[in-house]
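A reminder before we start the practical. When you read a complex entry, don't treat the lines as separate problems. The point of joint prediction is that each chain is placed relative to the others, so the output describes one connected object in space. Small molecules and nucleic acid strands, if listed, are placed in the same frame. In the example below there are two entries. Take a minute to note the order of the lines before looking further.
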Amino acid sequence: MEKAELIEKINAVLVEEFEVEPETITPDADIKRTLKLDSLSLVDMVALIESEFKVKIQNSQIASLKTFSLLYDFIYDNIEK
Amino acid sequence: MTNRRVVITGMGIYSCLGNGLDAVKESLYNGVSGIIFDQARKDLGFRSALTSHMETPDLKGVLSRSQRAFMPEQAKYAYVATAEALKNAKIDQDYLDSHIVGLLYGNDSSAEPVYKSCQTMFEKHDTTLIGSGGIFQSMNSTVTMNLSCIYRLKGINLTVSGACASSSHAIGLGALLIRNGLQDMIVCGGAQEVNPYAVGSFDGISAFSIRESEPTKASRPFDRDRDGLVPGGGAATVIIESYESAVKRGAPIIAEVLGWGFSSNGDHISTPNVDGPTRSLEMALQQSGVKLNEIGYINAHATSTKVGDTQEAKAIFNVFGDACPEVTSTKSQTGHEMWMAGASETIYSILMMKNGFIAPNINFENPDEDSAKLKIPAKRIEKNFDMFLTNSFGFGGTNSTLIVKNL
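Here is the predicted structure of the whole assembly.
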């Protein structure tokens, strides 16, 4: 999967799950603030990424994934190609 | 200790007889059955695929994603019922934010989320994939934890688990707290999940009717040819408050909770006796301070099982004798709404009381020796009455009886 296509798919599943407007998701936007995630819904995002893209985000890695851009890179680097 | 009057100022219901009071009243009046045959249960190996049926409410756009994530189906039913009850009681969020309002709701299972969480563990070997909702949906107190957060309630916050008497006990306990001055207003009710996982083990003990060829005739409380109960569900909410509180805020006062009786059989886990229910009825009457002939209608617990209906008929006849008013079981129409039944049957009875009729005990075609001693109308009757008694009994021999007066 090309990275642009992957990004489009990531955005689509996040918009669907967290019921936000698509235009609020930009590469430099803060994930937690944009998706309105608290400690519980953050678990749902991790579970969603794992079930949709088969990419496991460890607890120790969550804190570093602050923006969508960082999340895209992480998934792209770890997804089975 | 104070001894305040306790009144009902709002009601809401989501049941197989309809979504909301108006629809349910019509179904009661017309003797409609909410029972269907569910092929999915047969495919799971159920002895009986009969159940009540309703759609799970779609609350997208009503509640936020994070609020919905924690709600199993019965919490959604409870939300819809509670929203209707609060609206009818003329209570808005500003009122809830500025007063101490309690919550006592009957619920005694949340099987589907437990099953789904376990399925994820078996298949994926990764608990993260259960998601954040699993724990909150799985707990027995799921309804009260959800409603208390959605409505920002600040009074007592407690789930009552007393098997099929759960929500009758919830109303009784709520009335006691208000009577004693510990709370001014409590949201009371009961919720019951309708998915097959909740009742597969119940089906396994051969408690359900197997009259699958005639689903609407399967639930036949007090009828000689009854062969078991039909599981049902949904949710029902009543807003109870002190008479002073209701008058002060100009609330629509619907009825008064006069008394609550309770008892434990101290006997078999599933087979009821006569003594326990008798004591529950007598206690409710004594607490209410009313005479037998003031009770104009009895809403029986009768679930359509051989032994349960028989023992209750004996208990009612023992207590009321010739003074016994009409007795029906609305479970003939709804099936057994279990954790919800005490609250829903209080509402069904109030709807009848307010509209001058007694809904038919449908499918009552031939009495047996004990039901023959009671006045059980198989057809709807038009009757004005101002007081009723409603029974709810549960596994483990827990009994609850409420007496409610028209206002």
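Discuss with your neighbour: Chain A touches chain B through 14 residues (CB under 8 Å). What might explain this?
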